[in-house]
Each structure stands twice: as C-alpha cells, then as structure tokens.
Amino acid sequence: MADMISIRSVSRYYGIYKALDDVSLDIGAGEFFSLLGPSGCGKTTLLRSIAGFDTPTSGDIRIDGQSVIGTPPNRRPTNMVFQNYAIFPHLNVEENVAYGLKRLKLDTAEERRRVGAALEQVRLGALGKRGANELSGGQRQRVALARALVMRPKVLLLDEPLSALDKKLREEMQVELRSLQKAVGITFILVTHDQYEALGLSDRIAVMFGGRIAQVATPKDIYQHPLTREVADFLGGMNFMKARVTGETAGELSVETHRFGNVRVSKPLGFAARDGHATLGIRPERLRVLWDDAEADHSLEGQVVDRHYFGEITHLIVDVPGMEKPLSVSETNNFGADDIPVGAPIRLAYDPDALVALRD
Amino acid sequence: MSGRHGIAKSRWLPAYVVVYLAFLYLPILLLPIFSFNNAAATTFPLAGFTLKWYASLWTNTVMLEAARNSLFVGICVATLSTGLGICAARALTRYRFRGREAANGLLMAPLFLPEIIVAVSLLMIILQIGMELSLATVILGQTVFCLPYAMSVLTSGFEGFDRSLEEASLDLGETAFGTFRRVTLPVVAPAIVSSLLVSFTISLDEFILAFFLSGTEPTLPVYIWGQLRFAAKLPSVLALGSIMIALSIILLTTAEIIRRRAERRIQGA
Amino acid sequence: MTALPASTIADPDAPARAHWKDSDEAKGLMLVSPTLLYALALLLLPILIVFAYSFWSQDYLTIDHSFTLDNYRTALGEPIYQDLLWRSLTISLVVSLITVMVSYPIAWFISFHGGVHKSLWLFLITVPCWTSYLLRVMSWKVILGYQGVLNTGLMSTGLIDKPVTSLLYNSNAVVITLVHSWAAFAILPIFVSLEKIDRSLIEAAHDLGDNKIRSFLRVTLPLSLPGVISAFLIVMIPTVGDYVTPKLVGGKDGVMIATAIQAQFGKGANWPLGAALSVTTMVVVSVMAGAVVLALKFFVRRIR
User: Is the CB of residue C133 less than 8 Å from the CB of residue B205?
Assistant: First the structure.
C-alpha cells in the first residue's frame, strides 16, 4: 500500500509543553486509520497539523508525496469533519454542502449533481432545503460528512465525530462510517478516545500518550499484543503480574511466574528486563471458569471475592493465593457465571499463549 | 408555576412588578399625552386634542437644523463606534493576549464614570490642542461614550460565533478573506446592525457631551435644553420629545428583534 | 478535548513556521489597537490631563505649570464646595441604595419567574432607560411642578385643594428622578448574577431545612452579591456627577457638584479648580463605593 500520509519527526511545543514529541507515522492510501488516546495526548494536535490548522514546531508532513508544511488549510487535499460539525448556521443543508464547490466555479448542473450525490451518499437526499438549525445531531454529522466528501479530498479527517451522539446513534453511525469509507475508498483518519470505536472501525490504530505514539498496529494485534502496560490498560482490562526472566532470545522471553508456571512469551519491541523481572499480562476474558469436574491443561484455583453483573457477562474478582492482586475474570453468562456466589471456591483455566510480556 | 425550583411566587410580587412598570413608563407616556393637548400649560384636566404643536415643528428652521445635526452626528457615531467596537470585540472574544483585561477595563470605563468628568476632560484636551468645538468634536466624544454599549452588543454576538465555522470554511478551500465575507460577516451581521442602531439611539439622546463639545451647532437635546427656559416653548418641545422617544423605541425594538432572530438561528430551534 | 489553546488559522501567505506575528498575542493586539488607541487618546489621556491640571494654577488666561495643592485646598476647604460634595455624595448613596433595593425584586422576578419570556421582560424594563435622559428629567419636571401633572391631577380629583409646593426643586425630586433614570442599569447586573445561580442550590437549601426566606438570605442573596455590587457601582459613581437632574428639578436645595464643575469651565473659567473638583469627586466617590462594597460583603457574611 502506497503511503498517502507520511509524518516525519513532527514535534509541536507550546512554550515548554510538548503537545507532540518526535512523532513519525505512515498512513496508507485507502486506509481507515485511528488516532487513539486520552485527552491531551496530542491526537487532535496531530490531526490539526495534517489539516493545516496547526503548524509543527519541527518535522515534516507529506500528503501524497508533497510536503504540506507552509501550505494553508484551504490548499491542502484534506477535508475535515469537526467535533461539533461546524455547520454554517446561516445556510441550509444544500448550501452547506455546496460551500466548498462554489470556489471551484463548476457549472450549475454539475454542482447540483455533486451536491445531490453527496447527500444521497449520507442518506440525506430529502433534506436539502432544511435550515441548519432544524437538524438533529445525527443529521448534522451527515451534513458535515457530505460537505467534506463532496470536495473529493485525498484524506478525510474526523475529529471525534461520534462523541456528541448518544450511544445508540453512535453505534449506527459507526457501521455507516465504515461502509462509507469502503464506498469512497479514500484515506480516513479518525481521532477518538473510545477504544471500542477505534477497534471496530479501523484498519490500523496508533495509540498515543503524552505527545508520543506508543504503538501502531491492527486492532487485533494491538488488543492481543499490546507493547506497553499503558496501551494494554487503555484498550480494556488486563491482569498484570510480575515474572522472573529466566532466559532471553532475540524474539522470546522465558519467564517464571508464581501461579501461571514457566512460560515462553514473545518479546515486545524495545523490551529491557528490570532487576531480571518482566511485567506479564492476561486479559480477563482469557481466563475461563472451569465448571464441576472439567479438566484443563493449565488451571489455577482461587476464591470469588466480588462479582459485577453486566447483562451478557459477569466480572468475577478472584483471589488466588500467591498473586499480588486478585484476578479479574470476564465470563459469559451462558453457563451461569452470574449465579456463582461470592465466597465460593473456583477453578480457572487459561491458555499460556494468552499471556503477553509488556514494556513498563 | 408556584413551587417550581422550590421557589413559590408570592402574590404581591406581580403587583409590585406592575407598579414598577408604571413608575418606569408613566413619565415617558406623559410627554406624548401633553404634546397632543390643546393648551400651553401641562395641567389636568386635558384641554382637547390638537396637532398644532407638531405642525409648528415643521416651520421651525432652528429645530430642523438641530435635527440635521443630530442625524449627521448619530450616523457618524454609530459607524465609528461600531467599527471600533468590531475590532475590539473580535480581539477580546477571539484572542488571548497580555493586557486583555486592562484593555477591556479601559473601553468599559465610561460606564463607571460620571459623564460630566468625561465631558470636561474631553473639552480640556480638545481646547488644549487648539481644535475648534464643532460637530466633529461631539462625534469624537460620543464615540468614546458609545463604545461600551456597542461592545456589549457585539461581544455577545461574537461569543455565539464558533471558531470552527471559520476553520471549516478554510478547510473547504475558501481563502481568509472569502471566509470573512461568506461566513464571519453573515453570521455576525445581526450583532453589527444591532450595534449600529443602539449607538445611533444613544447618540441621538445624548446631552452632556453634546452640551460641552458642540460649540455653535446644537444637536436636538442641546436645542431642547435651550428651549426649556421658555415656558411658552414647552408644548412644541413636548412634541419634539415625543417624536424622539418614538424614534428611540422603534430603533431599539428593531435592534432587539434582529438580535433575537439571529440568536435563535445560531442556537438552533 | 486536547486541553491546549488551539492555534489560530494560518494566514495563507505566512511562512511555514509560527512567528510571533502569527501568534494569538500579536493578532489580538493588532486587532484591538485601533480601538485601544482611540480610547487611550480620548479617554485615558484626557483624564490624565485633568489630573495634571488639578495641580496647576491659572492666572487669568495663562496656566502656571508649577505644582500646587491650592486647588485641592479650595475644593476641600471652601464651605460651598464641601456642601456640594457632601450633598452629591449623600444623594448618590441614597439613589443607589433605593435603586438597588427597588430593582432587586424585579430582577429576581424576571430571573425566577420570567419563564420563556425573560428577554422580553428585560427589554420592557430597559426600553424607558434608553430613551433620552434629558426628556425623562423634563418629564419629571412636568409631573412635579407647582402647576404640574401631579398637583393639577390631584386637585381635579379633589384630593387636595391647593398645589403642594414641596414636590419640585429639592433633593427629593432629584432622588426620584435619578432612581427612575438608573433603574435598568441596576436590574441588568443583578439579573445576570441571579441567572448564574444553579437552581439546585436553592433546592438543596430547602432540602436541608431552610424555609424560603432563610434560603434566600443564605444562598440566593450571597450568590447574587457580585451583581448587587456592580449595580451599586454602576449607579452610584455616575450619579454623583449628574448635571441635568439637579439643574432641572433640584432648585437651590438640590444643586450638586457637577454644577460647580461646569461653572469652572464656563463663566468661572478656572480650569485647575474645575479639574481639582473633578478629581476630588472621583476619589471621594470611589472611596465611598469601596466602603459600601465592604459593608455589603460584611453584612451578607453575617447573615450566613
């Protein structure tokens, strides 16, 4: 995949505050790419630098091979969907969508055709004459999308476009956004702090903390093989434990744990043992309850100390003797995990492959 | 209604509001009442309906000259204070800079100063630099006085204006100037019109500064002040005053309607 | 979401890297400068000149620029100026107290019971105050005069048989007229501060056992204090220097300091004395305003 966006050593300082700290990143043509991280991690600054609303203190940004440093936003081949949608209040839906086209001096028929097509694309065909203040949140978002897509940008930038919508609508729009991206085939860059949104929509995700990129990978990779403890924690629950490193090769670590035995795990990039120890992690859903006399190759025993019911799943907090902290276990309620009483003894099965080593 | 927010509306409060409104409005309504009264004295009972006081205004060349002066001054003051107000309101709502608070304080200061001191200080500096008192000096002075009002109207208009609208416009390929013309101006236009009308009204009614700074060319309030000494002139002054009050109310109502329509549009239904 | 000041829109012709002239700071200063220069030249500078003049002296038409405190000695020492200053301060204090007290319930009514028509109510209340000040004072003169509306009205209804003389040309007439003139200026700041009060705070006070009066005194009033204070300042300071009202309805008994100031720039032609009177008035009224603000704060703290 050819690189559509290439970011090289970009930094952005506000006084002594580093909003972006030596960020390098390549994003392919036609890719749905997400920038994921907590508030203040620099993801919005990075997006705004690509759009041209923010100028990096140093470094280079290339779009389709052209450096865009110094190019104002109105001359970049990118278009943006703003967090609050920024629908022009004095224009109706059609006029909003046609706003950018007016600059291109198309003939009237062509302009109308493109506006109509864009509105069809976001399923707003019937609302062209609606005033900007007569739109619901979801409709405003569709107008913002149509207004940007009608410009046929090489890259569409989306700044937390779903955060203003309620849960149900947000889920609907996620599906629609994904199919829209497939249909138009251009690069989408999405900024979000919602890990489920990033996991569900993206081809690849960059997780950012403190102005730096912590990891770039596919959703599955980033969830199953987080590089650092921070990344693992941000993308859902994780049980952490300390383990003694007994052997190290180029790509693997042999470790000895208190309750999970001796295991071999793949070594994360840039790993360095501390005092001969490493941090291991296992996701709560990779621990399964062993019912009755069921046997498993790898299991451990403990006692339920707390229980949280979430509808389709139950979170069990299990105290395992010898572990520093109780384990968090996520079990579906299909087999009655919601009926396990607090205080009951319990056996848990796991797959040693589910253990990952993490950089601290 | 009562009990909402746990705050019951007492029975005497609406009555008090009515009395208060009467206190506010009756003195103003008196002028038009007596301006149609067929007697030179402002006494009850009324002596019958007449339009002669209004008719007498049309032949009063001194008054018409003063009205022309007021119109000229009002238009200049409205334009100048709105223009300056746009710069300041935009800078203060949009940018953070050192001295922002101090600048805002200085511009708002005329609200918190006795008007006579503003007038006296302006008179001193104008005579000091050897300028002749004229309508121009009235315009300069009234603009200082109108700025806080213009700024209040404009600031509230600009605060409702979301910066991302301008960014969206740039993002869609429009230039900085085009963005100003196609987005900024249309969205804040109602606030600007409102500010023009309010400034014009204030200038039209302003007396102290005009009194100190107008030299030999009176504005309407200065003309009225001169007429107050003559009891016989009172009815025609009442007629003139009624016209001015009606004009003020019309202008202010227009400004309010424009402002509210714009607010509805920006905030959404 | 990023907790940083978003940068400004880049000027299309600007060079690549952010220079100071592209910063928010520079753009803000550049944009505000025409207005600021105007206000500096025609507001701050004149006031500084007044200040300077108050330390100079005048001999017929020539100004002696050597420093002197004589003007202040006259302004503070001459009984006539003492009287005028004292009366001006008393009147402005009384006017501001009355205005704030009669306006507070109105502001409260609009804020708590104005419903969807709040802005319409505010407009109704403020419109009279936007009409010509001179005409309103004139109207009061017509009302309160010996042969005025009130006297002749009361006589025609038979309530009195000869005109009451004490209505016009005294400080009461000045106070009534000024209260009428400044009502809206007091209502607006109080209304704004009442609007900012989270209604659930009052509910919380009720929930915790306060009755309506106690919750008003312990929650609503203290939280609206900033509005009350600005209402005080915005009425008291300008009224101390009012010129038209005392002139038209004050008579001999209602003359205020502005008349004396004006005289120094008219017939009296003693600019330095006029300047000293202006400065004295400003300083004294500011000190008194400060004292009122402190007293209010103390008073409200005691209630809590």
Answer: yes
